[in-house]
Amino acid sequence: MAGVATEVVDYLLFVDEATFTERVKGASGFAERFSARGPRDRKGRSLYDLDLTRRLMKYPCSYLIYSPEFDALPPLAKDPIYKRLWAILSGQEQDPRYRSVLSLADRQAIVEILRDTKKDLPAYFAGAVRQ
Q1: N or C: which end of the chain has fewer CB within 10 A?
Q2: Could you tell me the pTM of the whole model?
Q3: Distance from C-alpha of 105 to C-alpha of 115, rounded to nearest angstrom
Q4: pLDDT (tens digit per residue) in 96-128
């Protein structure tokens, strides 16, 4: 499952996302409605918050982590995903590939949001995020 977990987590964290060359604009109100969805942490942040200036999401972790499909994954699938996610977000993973797309501030914000909003988050997510 390690290979699958790596692939899933890379998608969850938008690791291969292209950066925007200019701001995405619209007049439909979709961005505002979309950003208003989903759970918020104690600081008012959400994984639904859009950026649309340099990347798609303000906090680069997919809101699909809240989906019923993700929640329904059996422990044999979900546990390796959470372990890999924590390895990257906590700073245990030293691969420059992750360091170049996820700043310390990004990683810290994602962990804080998940701590406040994801009910089945493993206890090890209470640990410290380091450089």
Answers
A1: C
A2: 0.93
A3: 15
A4: 999 899 999 999 999 999 999 999 999 999 999
